Every structure is written in structure tokens, then in C-alpha cells.
Amino acid sequence: MNPATVIIPTHNRSLFIERAILSVSEQSYPSVELIVVDDGSTDDTRIRVAELAHQVRVPLCYIYQDNQGPASARNTGIRAASSDLICFLDSDDRFLPDKISIQVKALLDSGGLISHTKEIWYRRGNLLKQKKKHQPPEGSIFQNCLRMCVVGMSTVMVRRELFELHGWFDEAFPCCEDYDYWLRVSTNESFHLVNVPLTIKDGGREDQLSVIHRMGMDRYRIKSIVNLLESGCLTTEQYILAVNELVCKCRIYGNGCLKHGKADEGHHYLQIPERYHI
Prior knowledge:
Layout: E1 4-10, H1 14-25, E2 32-39, H2 45-53, E3 60-65, H3 70-80, E4 85-88, E5 94-95, H4 99-110, E6 114-123, E7 126-127, H5 142-147, E8 157-159, H6 161-166, H7 177-186, E9 192-203, H8 209-212, H9 217-229, H10 236-259, H11 263-271
Parallel strand pairs: 1-2, 1-4, 2-3, 6-9
Antiparallel strand pairs: 4-8, 5-9, 6-7, 6-8
């Protein structure tokens, strides 16, 4: 039996953390440990987790740290994990009961280092119909990852070796750290897709990073692409794809800045692609 570790990073989500934790406790897979990394919560998260620790059927480790962002919280969880197989679960999402059982078998059968699944999406309690562009891809997904984050954080299962090969989450990113990481990984790794929804994702709230940073998220995606272009690790084909996406993102973001009276920032982003030639 291959044990699995689930890492839940959280910040002021005491209203949702119980549901996430119980979804891990109720997994059909018999060998799971749970690590909750509290990234500087000021609500009653600590109390709620302590109460649940005596109720759940899985070993639960609670770690508190000063607020440093989701990338740091995930890295803290990785350091504390004792298993070779590692899953992530956002504190406002939840697993379906057979998620880990199905995914362990799929990942081991694939022989790869990373697996992800489909998701069920809710927004403000309403079931969302996903567009074709939101269907998770499989195999070599670098081009897909350039456009947007196509790997749901709460759907992922990886082998620890992945972090040894590709590093950890970049703590310089206050958001889009998932976009940055899976883009880096996709330069070399094949992504195995479990083609069924095994995670339930809730959205549409003001406390979510995608809402807090919605006006400037492309800055971080641009930063991620620039980091890759300057890393020297891309193939010629990947380099061309990355430059083309950089041009697109810089044009959209730069022109948006100009439209909103941010001339200096707008011209800065419009000029970034000039450093790279194809």
C-alpha cells in the first residue's frame, strides 16, 4: 500500500475548512495523512482544526506559520509530508470519496510523476457548465499551460520526485503560483489525466485570490513566461510558443494599462517582448 499525503493550505477559511478536512477523512483509500498549513489565519481556524483532529479517521497535522502566501504554505506542507504520493486540496474545495483510490492506481499504472483529474464547479452555490477551453488536457501540455492554468490545484497527485526535479512553488508569486509551477513542469513532464471529476470546486467569493488579484493577474503570468525564456531550458519549439504567448499577454495587459491611465506601466509591458526574438 502506497501512503498518500494531502496538503491543505488555508488562510481565514474557518467556514470551509471543516468540509475540506472531512472530505479527506472520508476517502475510501486506507492510507492517508493530512497536513493543514495555516498561513497566518486570524479567524478561529486553529480551534476548528483542533476540534476536528479528534473526529477524523486520518492522522492530522496542523502547522501554523506567519502569512506568506499560498506558495509558501504548499512548500511547508511538502517539507512536512512523509509520503511519496502528495495531493493538494484548497481549503474551500473538497474531494469525492474515491478520489485518492482512483488516482493512486491511475498514477502508478501510468508510470509518470503527475496526475490530475476533472472537476465539478460551483459558483455561489450554482452548478457551472464548463466551457471546452476548461477541459483539462493530457500528455504534453506546455502550449495549453501557456494560455492559462489548466491544471486544477485540488485535482493534482504527484510523486515527491517531481519537486526534486523541478523545484518547489515560487514564493515570489502572491498568486498564479500554480500557473507558474505547472508551466515549468510541463516543459519536461507528461501529465496523466483521470478523465472523471473527482474534486468539487467552489468559487465566486470575494476572498479568493483570483478575485483579489483579478485586475493584475497577467503580470504574474508574464513574469512566469519571462523567467522560463531566460532559464535556457526551453526547446526551440517551446521558446517560439512562449514568445508568441508573451506578445499576446503583454499586448493585452499593456493596452489595458494605457486605457486606465497607467502610461508608464503600459509602455513597460508593451516593450517586454522586444527583448526576445524568434
